[in-house]
Amino acid sequence: MSYYAEIVSEYLQARGQFIRREFFIALDKTPQQAKGRSWYVDVLAVDFGERTIWLCEVSFAKTLYALRARFKQWSDNWELIQQALRAEIAIGTEWQIRPWAFTPEELKPVYESGLQKIGPLAFDPKWSTLEDTAPWRLPAGSTLRALARTDLSAQDRD
Asked: What are the pLDDT tens digits along the chain (158 aa)?
């Protein structure tokens, strides 16, 4: 797991979401998965209040090519992915399942143009900046924000 995926995980936990890092989605129940039929999601987040499963992908690659390719594969297999997740997590059809991309703010134009190149998707992905996941941007009462302040104070003493 990348350092940035860990920061996103902590950000999501601070917002009250249950998370699972490097969640494996498999469309086939076989030992060997065919290419394009299974994926590791950087972070799977469960928002019980909104009844939404978020498939969170974190990227800081300048072209976002891998993220765009992943979204295209997911869109092509969206019904099967939803069925597999509903069975694996044991949720009903009233739950939404949506991708959520986290990239540096400067890559938003690259992200948006990449989605246009793919064409219509079978889902509506959410996008957030990696900068917004910084611990000091969390709500004032957040445990993670307090830990970040403690860590920064320790660094200042060194």
From this structure: 567 888 899 999 988 899 999 999 999 887 777 788 999 999 999 999 999 999 999 999 999 999 999 999 999 999 999 999 999 999 999 999 999 999 999 999 999 999 999 999 999 999 999 999 987 776 666 555 555 444 444 444 44
The closest alpha carbon to 14, from 154, 127, 136, belongs to 136
Strand 38-47 to 126-129 pairing? unpaired
Total domains in the fold of the chain: 1
Contact present, 26 and 33 (Cβ < 8 Å): yes
3-state class (DSSP) for residue 109: helix
The β-bridge relationship of strands 52-58 and 126-129 is unpaired
Domain that holds residue 126: 3-157
